[in-house]
Write a structure and sequence with these properties.
By secondary structure, this protein is mostly helical. It is built from 23 helices and twelve strands. It binds glutamic acid (GLU). Glutamic acid binds next to helix 8 and strand 8.
Length: 539
C-alpha cells in the first residue's frame, strides 16, 4: 500500500507538515528543571470541589519550579458540551485563586481544541503516511453486530485483531467508499498484544503494570474532529507539557497513549494520576467516592455558606500534602506558596474529605486575617446572601472594624468565625436592633444583686484592671470567691466565684454566655448602652 497516496486521498486539503507546525511552537525558554503543566478541562459540566485538586497540583508544580501553567479547553465532544461551562470554569478558577499563565490567550495557542482541528489532521495525516493509521467505514450497525458476536463468543468488546475489518483494506475498496461519500473515522493501527504487560512509573501511583493496548481506537471522528487521545498527545507535544496531572479514570487509556507518543516518536510527559476524593460513609462504615450531589462537592454550597476562599485554598493544601498543617503551624504568616509542595507526599489512594477538618482550617485561616480583611470579605459575601446585613455593615464601617478587631493579632487570636455567615450572629450584640437575650436569665437574687452593684460603680473610663477589680469586689460583697484559686481550695465557703459573677454581667450585656472579652465589648458599646441593658433586665 502506498501510504503517502492514501494520506493525500483522505485529507487532500491538508498541505502542511507537522514540522511546519512545530516551528510555530519553539522550545520554551525556561530555567533548568522548570515544569510545564496544564489544566485541560472538557466543558461538560460545572466545576465542583474535586476539580480544584488536580488543578492545584498542576499549578504548584509549575509555579514552584519557575515553569508555566496553562489552560487548554478540550471541547472536541460537542455532544456532551454544557452551555456556559467555559465561562463558569474561568470564573470559578479565578475566584479560587488558581491563575493560568496562558490560555485562552498566549503564544502556544490556540488553547481551544475546536480551533486546532487542522493541526490534529496534519499530525494524523503523518501517522497515515507512516502506515500507523487507516480509515474505517464501518456503520454503527456493523459495529453493533461485531459487539453482539463478541458477546456470544465471550470475547473482549472492541475493534481489534481479526475484528478490525478495515485494517487491511486495499486502496481500491477505500477509494470506492470515498467515491460513494461514505463517512469514515480514522483509526490507529495498534501493534499491541493484550497478553503483554508494560511497566510504567506514575508520579503519584508509583510503579504500575499496564496491559498493552490491542485496540484500533479512533483518532479522528467522521467529522474530522479528534478524540481526546489523539488531541492531548499532539497538544502536550506542541505545548511542551512536562507533567500531566489528570484523574485516575484515564489510567485504562494510558497504554494507548504511550503507543501514540511512541508512534509519533515524541518524548512523553510524566504522568500523575490523581485519585478521587473520598468521604466517610456512615451507613457502610467505609470510605466512598464523593458524589457530585454531596454538599461537599458543590462550590455553590461553599460560597453560600460563606467559606473564605483562603480557607478552601488552605484546606486543599492540607489534603494534598500531609505535612502542610505542621508547616502552617510553624509559619502562620507565610503565604501558602512558600510551602515546599511535594508530589511524594500525595496519597496514591485518595484523600478523605472531612467537614470538621475543613471547619478547623477555616477557623484558623480567618483568625489570622486582619479586621479589615474580615470586614471586606464578610461584606462581599453579605452583598449577595444577606443584603440587609451588608447595609448594616456599611452604615458604620469604623464601628464594625472596631468590633472585628477584638481578639485579633497576637499569638493566640480568637477563633470565633468559621464562615462569613457566622459574622452576623457573632456581632449582633453590638447592634441594638439585632441584640436579644439568647441565654437563659438566671432566676436568682444573686444575679440581680450583682447587676445592681455593678452599675453603681461602673465607669467606662476605668482601665481593664480597675474594671475587673470592681467585679471582684462585687463578688466578695455577695459572698462569692473573688479569686478562682481560693474557691477551688474550699468551695463550701462560698456561694460561687468571680467567674459566675462575670457570667451574670455577660448575660445582661451581651445576651449570651459566650462573647468576646467583656471589657472590650463594653468599651465599644459605651457607657449608656451597658447601663441601659442592665437596667432593662432588672425591670
Ligand atoms: N479533558 C480531559 C477531562 O476533562 C482532561 C484529561 C487531561 O487532563 O488530560 O477529563
Amino acid at each position: 500500500m502506498d501510504y503517502n497516496y492514501l494520506a493525500d486521498l483522505l485529507y487532500p486539503n491538508i498541505k502542511t507538515l507537522p514540522a511546519d507546525i512545530e516551528a510555530k511552537y519553539p522550545k520554551r525558554d525556561l530555567p533548568e528543571g522548570a515544569k510545564v503543566t496544564r489544566f485541560a478541562p472538557s466543558p461538560t459540566g460545572f466545576v465542583h470541589f474535586g476539580g480544584l485538586f488536580p488543578t492545584r497540583v498542576s499549578e504548584r508544580l509549575a509555579h514552584q519550579s519557575g515553569g508555566v501553567f496553562y489552560l487548554r479547553i478540550e471541547d472536541t465532544d460537542n455532544k456532551r458540551e454544557v452551555k456556559g461551562a467555559v465561562e463558569n470554569l474561568l470564573e470559578t478558577y479565578k475566584y479560587y485563586k488558581i491563575e493560568f499563565d496562558e490560555g485562552p490567550e498566549g503564544d502556544y495557542g490556540p488553547y481551544r481544541q475546536t480551533e486546532r482541528v487542522e493541526i490534529y489532521q496534519t499530525f494524523t495525516k503523518e501517522l497515515i503516511r507512516l502506515g500507523k493509521a487507516y480509515p474505517c467505514f464501518c456503520t454503527s450497525d456493523e459495529l453493533k453486530e461485531i459487539r453482539e458476536r463478541q458477546k456470544e463468543l465471550k470475547l473482549n468488546f472492541g475493534y481489534y485483531g481479526e475484528w478490525a475489518k478495515w485494517r487491511g483494506a486495499d486502496i481500491e475498496t477505500i477509494k470506492q467508499k470515498l467515491n460513494e461519500k461514505i463517512p469514515f473515522v480514522l483509526r490507529f493501527k495498534s501493534d499491541g498484544n493484550a497478553n503483554n504487560k508494560i511497566k510504567f512509573n506514575d508520579l503519584i501511583k508509583g510503579d504500575i503494570e499496564l496491559t498493552e493496548n490491542e485496540f484500533d481506537h479512533v483518532l479522528l471522528k467522521s467529522n474530522g474532529v479528534p478524540t481526546y487521545h489523539l488531541a492531548h498527545v499532539v497538544d502536550d507535544h506542541l505545548m511542551w507539557t512536562t507533567h500531566v496531572v489528570r484523574g485516575e479514570q484515564w489510567l485504562p487509556s494510558l497504554a494507548f497513549h504511550i503507543q501514540l507518543f511512541n508512534a509519533f516518536g515524541y518524548k512523553m510527559p510524566k504522568y500523575l494520576h490523581n485519585a478521587e476524593l473520598l468521604k466517610n460513609d456512615p451507613n457502610s462504615n467505609s470510605r466512598k467516592k464523593l458524589s457530585k450531589r454531596d454538599n461537599a462537592a458543590s462550590l455553590a454550597f461553599y460560597q453560600k455558606t460563606g467559606y473564605a476562599v483562603d480557607s478552601i485554598v488552605e484546606y486543599i493544601m492540607t489534603l494534598l500534602n500531609s505535612n502542610y498543617e505542621e508547616w502552617r503551624t510553624a509559619n502562620p504568616d507565610k503565604p501558602y506558596t512558600d510551602f515546599p509542595f511535594s508530589v511524594k507526599k500525595m496519597s496514591p489512594s485518595g484523600c478523605l474529605f472531612d467537614f470538621d477538618k475543613l471547619n478547623d482550617v477555616s477557623k484558623n485561616t480567618i483568625s489570622r486575617m486582619t479586621a479589615e480583611e474580615v470586614y471586606t470579605q464578610t461584606l462581599e459575601w453579605a452583598e449577595i446572601y444577606d443584603v440587609e446585613f451588608a447595609d448594616k455593615l456599611k452604615q458604620d464601617r469604623e464601628y464594625a472594624l472596631k468590633i472585628l478587631s477584638i481578639g485579633r493579632g497576637g499569638n493566640k487570636p480568637r477563633k470565633d468565625l468559621t464562615v462569613w455567615s457566622d459574622v452576623k450572629p457573632y456581632i449582633s450584640l453590638f447592634y441594638d436592633d439585632y441584640f436579644k437575650i439568647e441565654a437563659e436569665i438566671p432566676n436568682s437574687d444573686d444575679f440581680k444583686t450583682t447587676l445592681e452593684k455593678f452599675i453603681q460603680t461602673f465607669d467606662i473610663n476605668d482601665s481593664s484592671e480597675v474594671w475587673f477589680n470592681k467585679i471582684k469586689n462585687v463578688a466578695a460583697e455577695i459572698g462569692y470567691a473573688s479569686e478562682m484559686k481560693e474557691y477551688k481550695k474550699a468551695p463550701e465557703n462560698y456561694r460561687g466565684h468571680v467567674g459566675d459573677v462575670s457570667m451574670f454581667i455577660r448575660i445582661a450585656v451581651t445576651g449570651k454566655i459566650n462573647s468576646p472579652d467583656m471589657y472590650d465589648v463594653m468599651q465599644i458599646l459605651g457607657e449608656n448602652r451597658v447601663v441601659n441593658r442592665i437596667k432593662e433586665i432588672l425591670k
